[in-house]
Write a structure and sequence with these properties.
494 residues, Transcription Regulator spoIIAA, Elongation Factor Tu (Ef-tu), domain 3, six-stranded antiparallel sheet, rod-shaped
Length: 494
């Protein structure tokens, strides 16, 4: 017989499940409870769903291991199975047919009704003995009903437990789109723009140029024609110490004719003091027509010693500011992700430097060095949901036969995440979960119903592998036996 299987989700309620039933077009509808998620459907909800299924001409069945749901379903006559396979193989009990009440036609024998009103009561009803027997029977019936339905019991069992722990090699990358049981996880890339400023008291002494060196340069004609040498013509040594001519000059015609022109170092400082014949380069196209040298020493360039930042001072301040930028970037990136998400610290890096400004700049004196920087950082993270999914899927495949998962899954990185040169991050994840030996609650009910607590405890210890003695609580406290009806017994596994 065709069966519609509907797998419930944690967000399902009475309305959503009722809508799912309406879409079913089969004579049987099977609701499957999820293993690790909680679906809140009360006894009244199950009754409404059962009636809705009846109205659709279908029979309702459940697949669940939750004790309370099984008890509620059994009290309503809803068949319960341990799996979808058994639901399709096993026979379903015949659904109770609903009969429609046909109203009785109004009575027309009013005269007979009148006579019946005044009919004499039987003698046993009016006698004292008859009344005592009737009262006693009523009291016994009430006590019997109370004995069946009033007592409640809670039974706590402690099945054999095992701690299941697995080590999972993780490989994370933005190129992965989904979680794989092989350990592949998608990584998310985040970026932030941060700025910082730092200062450093300067005590170093630096050498700064004070005055420019000056002297005479001799220009020699390489051709037959006159050559105009304008002021500002640049000449230099082989070491690229540059000088500039100070006035406009005409070089006479004829090969080897020469003229001497006053020159000045382009930059101040003692590096402009050069020995005779050190200058040999004429910059620009003029160098094709003339050659140059300095017949005498070029002198007059001086330096001064003053307090100023050295390259070492700048490097020291840059380290301080960069550390401040890194901390700020990590804090801002962590604010973008969930608290339980895993940030990969070794992926935190600068993607672009937008500003790096020293004050005073290089080559200027100052007792305080200030650095202003603005950079863009990026980093990767792995969501806690993906880590949990990987842990659950791996643990589920490792649960030993006869056991079921109990409680929450815990997981943590065993090694620090390390990102290789091609952008893949590797680490080991440890996932842990407690598993309990599976116990047939139907068998539990058959063993303890109607028993006194001490005998029930003994029978449970003999029948099941328990790590501790069962705990039994009966309400009201003065009642001496466990209820006869399984519906009134709550079994909890710990």
């Amino acid at each position: 017989m065709k069966t519609k299987i509907i797998i419930l989700e944690s967000h399902d309620d009475l309305i959503s499940v009722r809508d799912k039933l309406s879409w079913a077009k089969t004579p049987r509808i099977l609701l499957v409870w999820p293993k690790y998620e909680k679906v809140t459907l009360r006894l009244l909800d199950l009754k409404v769903l059962q009636r809705h299924a009846d109205s659709l001409g279908a029979q309702l069945g459940l697949v669940t291991r939750r004790a309370k749901v099984r008890r509620d379903a059994e009290s309503l006559g809803i068949p319960v199975f341990i799996s979808t396979i058994s639901a399709q193989k096993d026979l379903w009990p015949d659904s109770a047919t609903r009969t429609q009440r046909i109203p009785k036609p109004p009575r027309r024998d009013l005269r007979q009704m009148r006579d019946a009103i005044y009919e004499k009561e039987p003698a046993w009803r009016t006698s004292l003995l008859g009344r005592v027997v009737t009262f006693t029977t009523g009291v016994i019936a009430v006590l019997a009903i109370a004995g069946l339905f009033v007592p409640r019991a809670a039974v706590t069992l402690y099945p054999e437990s095992q701690v299941l722990s697995v080590r999972i090699p993780v490989n994370a990358s933005p190129s992965y789109e989904s979680v794989s049981i092989t350990g592949s996880l998608p990584a998310q890339t985040l970026s932030v723009l941060v700025g910082a400023e730092g200062s450093l008291a300067v005590t170093s002494r630096i050498t700064l140029p004070k005055s420019k060196s000056k002297g005479i340069a001799r220009f020699t004609n390489l051709g037959q024609d006159e050559v105009d040498i304008p002021a500002g013509t640049l000449i230099s040594t082989l070491d690229l110490i540059r000088f500039v001519t100070l006035n406009n000059t005409r070089l006479p015609a004829g090969i080897d004719s020469f003229v001497e022109i006053r020159i000045e170092a382009l930059e101040a400082g003692s590096q402009g003091n050069v020995e005779p014949d050190s200058i040999s380069i004429v910059e620009g196209t003029l160098g094709l027509s003339v050659k140059v040298t300095n017949p005498n020493v070029i002198s007059g360039g001086t330096d001064i010693k003053t307090i100023g930042a050295t390259e070492g001072d700048r490097a020291e301040l840059r380290v301080v500011v960069m550390e401040k930028l890194r901390r700020t970037a990590e804090m801002q990136i962590r604010a973008q992700i969930e608290v339980e998400d895993l940030l990969l610290p070794d992926t935190l890096e600068i993607t672009e430097t937008l500003r790096e400004e020293f004050s005073p700049p290089d080559g200027q004196a100052g007792t305080t060095l200030v650095l202003k920087m603005q950079v863009e950082y990026s980093a990767r993270s792995i969501s806690n949901a993906d880590l949990k999914q990987l842990a659950l899927s791996t643990l589920s495949a490792s649960i030993p036969p006869g056991f079921f998962p109990f409680g929450e899954v815990t997981f943590k990185p065993l090694t620090n995440p390390v990102t290789d040169s091609i952008g893949f991050t590797h680490f080991e994840l440890e996932a842990t979960q407690i598993t309990l030996r599976d116990i047939d609650e139907v068998k539990v009910f058959s063993i303890i119903r109607g028993q006194d607590p001490a005998r029930a405890q003994t029978e449970l210890m003999k029948s099941f592998a328990l790590r501790d003695e069962p705990q039994i609580t009966i309400r009201p406290a003065w009642w001496k036996w466990l209820p006869l009806i399984p519906f009134n017994i709550l079994v909890e596994l710990r």
